[in-house]
Structure formats: structure tokens, C-alpha cells
Amino acid sequence: MTTATQNLENDHIHILKLIDVMEAMVKLPDAEIAHLEEVVSLIRKFADGLHHAKEENLLFPLMAEKGFSLQQGPVAVMLTDHEEGRKFVRGMDEHIQLYKSGQLSALNLVYANMAGYNDLLRNHISKENNILFRMADNAFTSEDQKSLLTLFSILDSGSGNEPSGNVYVQQIETLANQYLQSN
Ligand SMILES: [Fe+2]
Ligand SMILES: [Fe+2]
């Protein structure tokens, strides 16, 4: 059976696919505004709204209960990375708006923020997969993993205004088919 940390690693696969798409985008001389906006929306709703919410609201607090500090050490580093990521996304969003209003030179800064986000998140995901989640696996009982996974699954299935996580995964796949055709 899947563990809670495997559920998060599975999200990482989709986030990395979105990063592949952004890496392909920044090589293009111009960009389709709707796709730039879709990427920002997917980061905010899937990578941050769903995945980072699982980590920040459920995983890290449980790790804190097991004795990990939220103020320093590996969990604190992960929280700082999430904040850095949000700054890059704000940078993308602001410059997409300028690009949309006709300031063509703003595209360079959209791309610079995307590239910064990509580097940060690749590194971040690697630290989580290789180090942080393994620490969590060592600290958690199988009951911990089970109850955490149940909570993740509830978030994955969406609620009220929020669609299920699969809707975002499908959107990422559609973009990937368009931008990563040669793969
Ligand atoms: Fe994270
Ligand atoms: Fe993560």
C-alpha cells in the first residue's frame, strides 16, 4: 500500500513534468500568453495549493510532533524554499501582466523567474525525496503513515470549489504533450 511520503513523491513526478514544460517554454523566442498563465495557475493550485499545503499543514506538523524543529534544520529549509518559490511565481505573474499589456521586454523577466523557480524546485524536490521524506519514514509509525495518507487522499479528491488533483495532472499532461513532443 502507498505510504503518505510516496503520495508526495508521486506529486513530485507531476511537478517535475511541469518544470520540464517551463524549461521548454523559456527556450522559445515568444510565448503563448494563455500557456504562461496556465503554468502560473498550475503552480499555484497544484504545486503550492495542493502539494505544499499537504507538506506545510500536515507532514511538517507531524514531523514537529516527532521532534523535528520548524525553526531550524531540514524542515525549516523546506519552508524557506516554499517561500522563495512563491516569490518567483509572483515575479512570473507580474511580468506576464506587463507582457500582456504590450511591454514585450517583460518576457525576459517572466523567463528569468521561471528559470529561477525551476532550479529551486528541482533542488527542493531532490532534497525532499532523498533526505527529508526518508527522515519522516524513519520517524513515522505505519499508523502515522496511514492516517496522513487518508488526509492527503481527502485533499487529492478535491472539495467545493476545488477540483480533484487529477484535473491538474491532466492539464500538465496536455501541456507536456504540446511542449515536450520530441521526448
Ligand atoms: Fe516541499
Ligand atoms: Fe514536495
Question: How is the secondary structure organized here?
Answer:
Blueprint: H1 4-25, H2 33-65, H3 74-100, H4 106-139, H5 142-156, H6 165-179
How would you describe the overall organization of this protein?
The protein contains six helices and no strands. Helices cover 80% and strands 0% of the residues. Bound molecules: fe (ii) ion (2 copies). One fe (ii) ion (FE2) binds at residues 52, 55, 78, 82, 124, 128.
Low-confidence runs of at least 5 consecutive residues: none
Subunit organisation of the chains: single chain
Order of H and E elements? HHHHHH
| Proportion in helices | over 70%
Biggest pleated sheet: none
Mean pLDDT, all residues: 96
Intertermini distance:
31 Å
Give the bound compounds: fe (ii) ion
Supply the helix-strand structural class: mainly alpha
Radius of gyration: 17 Å
Number of helices: 6
**Total number of beta strands:** 0
What share of residues are in beta strands?
under 5%
Shape: globular
Can you tag this structure with a few keywords?
183 residues; binds fe (ii) ion; 6 helices; single chain; mainly alpha
What's this, in brief?
It is built from six helices and no strands.
